[in-house]
């Protein structure tokens, strides 16, 4: 039994912010923002539109059309995007299912932050393999750019946060409609980083109040002084470990890799990882025109690779991601086109 990706879609808002504008607002030199952080521009949402569910519906409609699947054929709608959604304590998945007309599907959510795409595919693949569902829609969206304070130097590694959405349709034994065969996955977590990146107020530890709003505590920040020093020696090896593990479980090695869809990160780290994995310039896409769109990054990179002709039938594609917490994850696919 084969688990197949039969369709995908991506969506980004029309409005953009350039690296030059981020530099002007943050006080960081433009060369650092553009060259080191890797932000030529990124898409951002207007305050009154492009909420998480709006963007998911846009991406999902394209994915369903790509897969030639009607909404009423879906058994599952899984949201694996940002927890910063239209409302708090709320199911974006249920809202997306309703708006699409997926009346036969149940809706649920999965959170691994920026490592969400490989793991959402992993868990849905397992459900398809057991026969729990036959057809699933995975949606993700992020507008966490709203939560970034460009005046907070501690949060500078989040200045690349952009907005957008993605959707994947997964099915069992899809035959000629197969866009990619889903292979194996791997993941690991180092929970010692679990309280480093937080929004200080808004949860049960510090409920929202006039005082927390006035104090600016509803933006993401780095709560520790030494996270960069602690994560530097472990992140690279952990990325490579999950990549190798997912490939090995799939009966593959780095030599079989044809394209890596990688989380947006600073340019030097991206280049180091792709060099270590042994892939050439056409075998990855650096998302400097999108920034980091949480668990949407893998779909954006894949889409750019497909449209550029850098992902072809028979290619091994690796979705490789990491999310604060910290979790590193990878899923291997065989592209059929």
UniProtKB/TrEMBL annotation:
<protein>
    <submittedName>
        <fullName>3-oxoacyl-ACP synthase</fullName>
    </submittedName>
</protein>
<dbReference type="InterPro" id="IPR016039">
    <property type="entry name" value="Thiolase-like"/>
</dbReference>
<feature type="domain" description="Beta-ketoacyl-[acyl-carrier-protein] synthase III C-terminal">
    <location>
        <begin position="247"/>
        <end position="335"/>
    </location>
</feature>
<dbReference type="Pfam" id="PF08545">
    <property type="entry name" value="ACP_syn_III"/>
</dbReference>
<keyword id="KW-0414">Isoprene biosynthesis</keyword>
<keyword id="KW-0808">Transferase</keyword>
<dbReference type="Pfam" id="PF08541">
    <property type="entry name" value="ACP_syn_III_C"/>
</dbReference>
<dbReference type="InterPro" id="IPR013751">
    <property type="entry name" value="ACP_syn_III_N"/>
</dbReference>
<keyword id="KW-0012">Acyltransferase</keyword>
<feature type="domain" description="Beta-ketoacyl-[acyl-carrier-protein] synthase III N-terminal">
    <location>
        <begin position="113"/>
        <end position="180"/>
    </location>
</feature>
<dbReference type="GO" id="GO:0008299">
    <property type="term" value="P:isoprenoid biosynthetic process"/>
</dbReference>
<dbReference type="GO" id="GO:0016746">
    <property type="term" value="F:acyltransferase activity"/>
</dbReference>
<dbReference type="InterPro" id="IPR013747">
    <property type="entry name" value="ACP_syn_III_C"/>
</dbReference>
